[in-house]
Amino acid sequence: MNFIEELKKGLHTGFINFQKASLEDYQPSLLINDRQEEKRVLTTLIKELNECDAFYFSVAFITNSGIASIINILKELEERGVKGKIIASQYQNFTQPEALRRLKALSNIELKIVTEDNFHAKSYIFRKGTRFTLIIGSSNLTQNALSYNKEWNLKVSSAEDGDLLKYTMKEFNRTFESAIAVTDQWLADYEILYREQYKASRQVVYDVQTTKAILPNKMQLEALEALEKLRSEGKDKALLISATGTGKTYFSAFDAKRVNPKRLLFVVHRENITRASLRSYKRIFGRDVTMGILSGSNKDYEARFLFSTIQTLSKDYILEQFKPDHFDYIVIDEVHRSGSSSYEKILNYFKPKFLLGMSATPERTDGYDIYKTFDYNIAYEIRLNKALEEQMLCPFHYYGVSELEINGEVIDEKTAFNHLVCDERVERIIDKAKLYGCDHGRVKGLVFCSGVKEAKELSEQFNRRGYQTVALDGSSSENEREEAIERLEKDTPEGDYLDYIFTVDIFNEGVDIPSINQIIMLRPTQSAIVFVQQLGRGLRKSEGKEYVVVIDFIGNYANNFLVPIALYGDRSFNKDHLRKLMSNGSCSIPGVSTVNFDRITKERIYEAINKSNMATKKALVEEYKLLKFKLGRIPMMMDFILHGSRDPFAFVEYSGSYYQFVASVEQTLGTSLSAVEKAHLEFYSKELGSGKRIEELMLLEGLIRDGELASSQLRQLIKEAYGYDVSEATIESSIRYLNGDFFKKQDQEKYAKSQSILVEVESFKMTEGLKSDLKNPDFKTYLLDLIAYGIDRFNKTYTLEAYEKGFIRYQKYSRKDVCRILNWESDESSTMYGYRIKYNTCPIFVTYHKQDDISESTKYEDCFINKKQFSWMTRSGVTTESRETIAIRDHNKTGLRIALFVKKSDGEGSDFYYMGDVEPMAISQTTIKNDKGEDKPIVNILFDMAHSVPDHLYDYLTQ
């Protein structure tokens, strides 16, 4: 590739004509932070760092949060010996000394500081041989500037002799030479100055906060209005689902203030929470209301607002102190516990005017229906991602790091105890804890272990190395826990303080330690709910706390696929969704939080996604029942979509149709459809539900709605909805598909030869068979639901810009899908293999990472040359004079359509990413060896793609 020529093309696209095709890497671009478009300045910064052989930063401000956002790649560059120079500024003493100290600790970085007040430059320069990338704009090296703020940064590429680059580097070097080296002594002096200024500024903030009234935030106001609406409709109970740390207690106090109950009861499961809740209520109500505690050591029966532990309240002699209607407002905290006998006892006893249940995780897998307890009245939902987006929680920087390998074996669920606590593992944990650190000040950490014995031994190991730690478990008393929390929360490492608390699961919920700034996870992720609970321990906001560090040690655990499910809040269990989230990294996380995996860890998670069966009968039934409990009725496929639950196509793949799955769970439904109706519904479900083409779905929906549909109407519907014109060939193909003619004989027999469409002159009608099926109300209900789901699935991936004659760029298709969308007369997927030329089309299928056990003559060296060019090999035995080579060469004369499909490996299934239609740029004869070592002729073709492959997909496929 000629860099100068590609650079010229990129500059032409950027500055002269946007329609000029070129590599995106060399196009000038504006870097911004945009949540909706999943764009962050940080993403480009990390990409450029990863590809460079030298870097030069010049920024006014550097904070710990900025370093936390890029520490993984900085450490990797140090290990690779890639050198960098960084200039920071002392302007307004904003740059954090700890951030400078972390940079100074990296041996590959020369760090200097400008002490004059007039330095406010922000530039990032990267060298790759004779090529350079310049990013100049408004972003400092802080988490907000890199991920959240409205920032404008111009990115341009340059050759080493470019005038702009020469002048920029000259200015950088001049500033660097005149700046002061950051020495230990300079840092010590600056830290004193910084701390004094920080302390003064925090005092101002504290003075403002202590005099400021606490008011509901935006989401709490919406939830309060929802509660008012429920009460106006005569409802006397409701459930609030709200992520840990989002202010559930304050919310209940705000609502109580609106209702103004004569007597209020607040029920919790631990005594320390009664005191914390009472303090929160006092901040809202002041001294206007008498408040008291009912627990083992307190019996304030007469208080107007009573805060009680469930253990005390559920005792008979305590309950007898109150009439059933004594409290007109009752709040149940952590209501997902309400299935226990003690909770049921008080819920059955008291008859309040209003009952409010609150939980971060109401989903229960033991069959208890919490939603029924509250008459299915869900006032509001604030899940983790939404709370992060609304900045209700403290941001986090998550680091997935690879577990230790001992004697050639990576730690997994079966690892012996002595390996879990060996010196090498302890040292690795400490090294990573030091590397990732915390926001500022001292570390206040929670360590979650896989067992009590491990927690105790690791605590002792840390203590031997000079740390102050304790291990707590279920046998630890309330006083021991409170004392440990108090010691952990001390701001200075003086006296009887703690660095870490080691535990297994007693701190998963119901514990308020706002100042936690580091969480270490040393156990396999067995549940996404538990993962979020443990993550949530660090997400509560606290004065002066900027972010929390989460260090997750990931071994060879079977459930590693749960990590992205928990982190990104994607409950679809769709493997392609999870792969995309993993490759997108931090862009799919709201706010300034980041997600970082080392290479080995990322591979382990991808492997777990590929290998795991995420749709077992047990898992599907569990998800089905959870949503049924929530709705109070049998859910339909679209209910799973509307409630952000599992992708319901998993039920289709498991049972043939969603109806069949429901019938297997709900025995009363099993006989409502005949065998033929079930077969027909299975046909529509399996063959239309994937939403790969919209024409069949729109046609079928229109026929069911109107009974008849003109060809012109169908064209108009699609034109209005999607902006493109449907070809006659596509309409004919859709009819063949809906009538079953496209399918192989065995599939036709399996689906009871479902015939749907009668074709008349320029119009379509339903066959008598489809009319008969639709007379059954259950068939019609489930079919319309399936169609709605298929359309929704298509809509989620469709954009007119990415649509290319049936395919959507970078979406996945099977060989069978390709036959159908290319309008082939029948399904020829079983004999298509690598490519085939037919009907003036040539689909090409490439498995990028091929298995080792295939024959030598099929180990084709297919690869991306760059993000816009692909090198492809024909089958062996082909020459430049072969008919298929000539057809590809002469495609412009014949109109042959060449479509490229690529998948990473066989491990991810049978679907391929559509990379776009491609243009042959060069054709050359070469050879490949067969199993006998003999040379066989083969043709190499260099294809050009009209669009550059997105970074996340390119990296996923090629790495």
Automatic annotation (TrEMBL):
Top-level taxon of the source organism: Bacteria
Species of the source: Cellulosilyticum lentocellum (strain ATCC 49066 / DSM 5427 / NCIMB 11756 / RHM5) (Clostridium lentocellum)
A GO molecular function held by the record: ATP binding
Entry GO CC: cytosol
Gene3D superfamilies from the UniProt entry: Endonuclease Chain A, P-loop containing nucleotide triphosphate hydrolases
Protein name: Type III restriction protein res subunit
Domain Helicase C-terminal: from-to ranges: 425-600
InterPro entries given in the database record: DUF3427 (IPR021835), DUF8090 (IPR058403), Helicase/UvrB_N (IPR006935), Helicase_ATP-bd (IPR014001), Helicase_C-like (IPR001650), Helicase_Restrict-Modif_Enz (IPR050742), P-loop_NTPase (IPR027417), PLD-like_dom (IPR025202)
Domain Helicase ATP-binding: start-end pairs: 229-380
